[in-house]
Amino acid sequence: MAASLIPTSFLVRRLAAGALALCLGALLPLGAAQAERIKDLASFTGVRENQLIGYGLVVGLDGSGDQVRQTPFTQQSLTNMLSQLGVTVPQGTNMQVKNVAAVMVTSRLPAFAQPGQSLDVVVSSMGNAKSLRGGTLLMTPLKGANGQVYALAQGNLLVGGAGASQGGASVQVNQLNGGIIPDGAIVERGVPTTYAQNGVVRLELNTSDFGIAQNVVAALNRKFGAQTATAVNGRTIELRAPSDPKAQLAFLSQVENLQVGLPPARARVVVNARTGSVVMNRTVTIDEAAIAYGNLSVTISPQQQVSQPNTPFGGGQTVVTQNTQIEMRSEGGAIKRVTTSANLADVVRALNALGATPQDLLSILQNLKSAGALRADLEVI
């Protein structure tokens, strides 16, 4: 049995050049102009979705439902539902119903939704049911944050997973304890949507950026006339819309589809410490630096030796001795020069020349940031 202890190195082997090359193919050159539609950058205040949630029962399962002894709320919910349908269950009855599962049902109520409109719902088991495959959700009220019912859900579940078990062996593909019902809910009540107050409509940018806000204001004023748009702050923009509702809809449609030039994004490197993935935008640069790296590996191999000497009077006493071998191996370090990189392509070439892997790139970028050679914000998630 061997155990290995390998501390994080300063720099390492190879960057996933293929993955980064694929990312580079979709990126624009540093000096190229970039434009986006306003509908991709912002949304109108008041035009939003609302979350809905409900608790219900799924029936028709093939013996894969909740175990009643471990999930008493399933039996209680089933008893209450039967009583509402005119079926009385005597108290103390031990119901062994394996074809029923308690579930949570969620959905989203879109803006401007009207009664009769259909919604997709997501159904998730909250007990110990083995599978919801083949089940049917019974009528479930979906409530908003204010406790009011806005939709009713019911229908057959669509479960993307599959599984089988026999003789103690089992196989499963994807998740079996959750599914969806396309158009499984019907809206019973709409939510009033107000997006214009006294002829003023507010735009909210998806991210706070004074440069983007200024460009949006300038584009709107060029298109519709001066004083049409005013930036309140780096996220909110006020628009003076026509008072006529028909003209107002046409105006907002043109606003959404207006192209806006974007300033260069703030240089940022995002590292996922759990998966080792590294993503950097096109404004990242590296200053000239010299880096030394090397690996130190320590291997500990414990072994047990058993000795039982023979004696004239019979078997001797068994002796177990511990023999541990420790091996230390250090790879030769080197000092390598990283030249100044003016764009993302140069950054990738510089890191590839060092021979860095994505998993070890975190420590590399941290050291470059500490030395002041990385011209970007480093974010670890």
Task: Provide an overview of this structure.
The protein is of the alpha+beta class and 381 residues long. The protein folds into 3 domains: 141 residues, no CATH class; 80 residues, Dipeptide-binding Protein, domain 1; 130 residues, no CATH class. Helix content is 19%, strand content 38%. The strands form 9 sheets. It has a 6-stranded antiparallel β-barrel with strand order 4-5-6-11-8-7. Strand 7 and strand 8 form a beta hairpin. It is flat and about 115 Å long. The N terminus is likely disordered.
Secondary-structure blueprint:
Elements: E1 3-5, H1 17-25, E2 34-37, H2 38-41, E3 42-44, E4 50-59, H3 72-84, E5 101-109, E6 118-125, E7 136-143, E8 149-156, E9 162-166, E10 169-173, E11 178-187, E12 196-197, E13 200-205, H4 210-224, E14 229-231, E15 236-240, H5 245-256, E16 259-262, E17 268-271, E18 278-280, E19 285-286, E20 289-293, E21 296-307, E22 310-311, E23 314-315, E24 319-330, E25 334-338, H6 344-354, H7 361-370, E26 374-375, E27 377-380
Parallel strand pairs: 17-27
Antiparallel strand pairs: 1-21, 2-16, 3-13, 4-5, 4-7, 5-6, 6-11, 7-8, 8-11, 9-10, 12-13, 13-15, 14-15, 17-18, 19-26, 20-25, 21-24, 22-23
Organism: Castellaniella denitrificans
InterPro entries: Flag_FlgI
Pfam families: FlgI
Could you provide a short overview of the structure?
A 6-stranded antiparallel beta barrel has the order 4-5-6-11-8-7. With 381 residues, it is α+β, with helices and mostly antiparallel strands. The protein has 7 helices and 27 strands.
